[in-house]
Design brief:
alpha/beta; binds flavin-adenine dinucleotide; about 425 residues; single chain; globular; about 10% strand; six-stranded parallel β-sheet; Rossmann fold; 6 strands; about 45% helix
Amino acid sequence: MRSIYWFRNDLRLNDNLSLNLALAKSDAILFVYVHDIANEKNCPWGFERLGQHRRLFLSQGLAELEEKLSKSGHSLNTYVDDSVTVLADLVKKHKIDTIFCESIASYDEAKQIEGLKAQGINVNSLWQSSLFSNDQLPFDINDLPNVFTNFRKAIELSGIKPNKPVNTPEKLFNTDSITDNHLVLFNVKTIDYQKSSFPISYKDFMGGEKAGISYLKKYFNSEKPSTYKKTRNELMGINFSTKMSPWLSNGFLSSRQIFNFLEDYENKKTKNESTYWIFFELMWRDYFRFIFKKFGNNIFHKQGLKFFKAKVEHSTNNFNLWMAGETKNEFINAGMVELKETGFLSNRMRQIVASYLVNELACDWRAGAAWFESQLIDYDVYSNQCNWAYIAGCGTDPRGGRHFNIDKQREAYDPQSKYVKFWSRS
Ligand SMILES: Cc1cc2nc3c(=O)[nH]c(=O)nc-3n(C[C@H](O)[C@H](O)[C@H](O)COP(=O)(O)OP(=O)(O)OC[C@H]3O[C@@H](n4cnc5c(N)ncnc54)[C@H](O)[C@@H]3O)c2cc1C
C-alpha cells in the first residue's frame, strides 16, 4: 500500500499509535505536515490566530522532526496551504491509497477529514491524544458525566490504567520513502525568553520530541514531583509545575509517556498526594477531550454547553485594554504582559485574568479564548475552550462559573508584589 502519514498535533515518532498503524500497513510512505492557511488569517476578533511564540516553538519541533525522518531515510514535506487541497493533490500525484493521521475532535479538524472523504479519499484517522483510549472508558461517550468529579471517580473505580507507550516502529527504517521535495519553513523571530517561566530560546525548553523527552527525564529524576501539589499554584519560575503542556499540546510528547515516568517515580522513589495530583491534572486534560467528543461544536457557542444561562456581553474597548495589559488593575496587567511577552502563563494566573475579563470587564469569554489561542505556546483547543467556558459559566463547572476576588488572589499569591514588579512595564 502507498500511504501518506499526515502529521497533525502529534509531531513525534515515539508513542505515536497512528504512525505505527500507518507503517504497519504501508509499503511506501510520504510524510506530510500542512500548516493550514487558515492559521495565517486573523481570527474573527481581529488578531492573528497563531502568534510568534507558538510559531517559533512549532518551527523548532518541525525542524527536529524533519532531521529525524531524514536520518531514517525519509523526508518531511511541509506546506502552508489549505490542508484538504494539498492532501488531495498529493494523493493524485503520488497514487496514494490511504491517508493515515490522528483524529482531532474539533470543528476545523473534523471538517478537513470530511473534505477529504467527500473526494473519495481513504482516510484512516485514529484517536490517540488522551491518556485513556476510547475503548477503555467505563461508559459510552454519550454517558460521559457532565461534572469532572464524577468522571474522575468512575475512572478510578473502574481500575483502568493507561496503556504503556510504544517506541518508534522499526518499520520506519525499512519502508520505502515517497518524497514530494517540498519544505516550507515559517518566518520566525527569536527573541530572548530569559524572563519566561518556559524560556523557549533555551535548549532545554525548545520545541520538539528530543527536548521534551530530555525534560521529562530530568523532571522525574528530581524531587519536584513529590512537592508538585504545594507549588503548583505559584506564578513564576520554571520549577513550580511540571511544564509539560507545551510539548503535550503540540504532540512532541504524549500523556502516556508522562504517566509512564510518573508511575516509575511512584514505584521507585516517592508516591504521595503530589504525585497523585499530577495524574489528577492529566485526568482534567482527558476530561476536556472527551467533553468535545460528547458535545461536538456546542462548546464554541456563546452559551457553551448551556447547562446554565450565563450572561455573555462584550466591550471591545475593555477587551483591547485587557489584551494590551492596560486595565485599571496592575496585577491583571502583569499577567497580560507576561502572556504577550512570553507565550506562557501559570494556571493560577490564567484563571485570574480569565475571571477578570468575563466578570469585571464584561467581555465575551470566546474572545479571551481566542487571545489565548493566539499567544499561548501550549495552546490546545480542548483545554483552552473548556477552561474558558468553565470560568464563564458556559462549561462544566457545577457552580456555574468562577468569579475570583482579584485583590484576595493577589494577597494570596503575590503578597510582596514580586510578580507585579517583575512584569510591570514602567
Ligand atoms: C483560561 C485557561 C486556559 C487554558 N488554556 C490551556 C491551553 O490552551 N492548553 C493547555 O495545555 N492548558 C490550558 N490550560 C490549563 C492549564 O493552565 C495548563 O495546562 C497548565 O498551566 C500548563 O502548565 P504545566 O504543564 O506546568 O501544568 P501542570 O500544573 O504541571 O499540570 C500537568 C499537566 O496537566 C494538564 N492540566 C493541568 N491543568 C489543567 C487544566 N486546568 N485543564 C486541562 N489540563 C490541565 C496539562 O496537560 C499539564 O501539562 C488553561 C487553563 C485556563 C484556566
